[in-house]
Amino acid sequence: MVTPSPAKRPRIDFEDDHANPPPPTSGNGPVSIYQRGNHWFEDGNVVLVTENTAFRVYQGILSKNSDVFRDMFTIPQPADAEKMEGCPVVHLTDTKADFGRLLTILFDVGNWYPTPRRKLPFELVSTMLRLGTKYQVEYLRQDAIHLLQQIFPTQLDLLWGASIATLEPFNQKKAETYEVDSDAVEMVLVDAIATVNIARTFDIKTILPPALYVCMQLDKSLIMRGFLDKSGVLHKLHPEDQLSLWKAEATLREHHASQIGFVVQPERHRGSYYGLVHRCTDVLSESEWIYSIDLCANCYAHFDEDYTAKRQKVWDGLAKIFEVDGLQWPSD
């Protein structure tokens, strides 16, 4: 369920993790050209540089967690290799925000791991998956996949709840403020776009049907335009995924007409009918809306049962509707 939560649980703020104190002024190499990142241990034995920001950390911890770093550190370095304060310097291509989050995970475990009182920001989960894969930190990759599968499940009864849309399409402002109901991850509706993209990149097909379904509820202009996250990164669906949304819309409209046709007749319930038609792609919402219509108790029970069965039928066909090939859906 998507809720504009009045009382947010504490989140971890990684945006300020990369404040730049004055750079070091001693040692070997072109020290002055680098700014010092917040992960700087005076007894560290390796300096990692990305986007002109230097992080001084420990080879041993990196090697223990990452096969890539372990192999990297075994390569002999030439005598004239760059050094900083006596430590070897390794240049990386990640953004400093991304790599800083990875270092926070590896070197500051107590302040990032999810607890009943603390959620992980979606951007951190994304970093866990992307850099966990790149640097072969397998437990981070698996934890990230598990968290995403909790939000985008394969079973309908594990979906967020009553509805992921209101009677109006989600424009960009709404989509960037409506929170997904998750105990572990802090994310908003528009993050479904980034979720689809990373699911495609890392072949996590099980989260694609529900993630694409969430994207289906967003305003069309937002889908076509994409959105900028807090780091200034543009997230936009691939044209093939955009096309699958437009194709799916017609199918979802047909399912929706079938669902409401048993309950609402336009000539008898004009207001309710046109309100429901307006939300024609939100076919997985729970059945509470039925009880806003003037019916007898027996009719409520009958139509509730009928709607629930049709809702499950839509869910069972979600992978086919969004043309996600090579996936057994729904899976256990």
UniProtKB/TrEMBL annotation:
Residues 44-108 form the BTB domain. It comes from Steccherinum ochraceum. SMART domains: BTB. Transmembrane segments: none annotated. InterPro entries: BTB/POZ_dom, SKP1/BTB/POZ_sf. PROSITE patterns: BTB. This is BTB domain-containing protein. Residues 10-19 have a biased composition (Basic and acidic residues). Gene3D superfamilies: Potassium Channel Kv1.1, Chain A. Residues 1-32 are annotated as: Disordered.
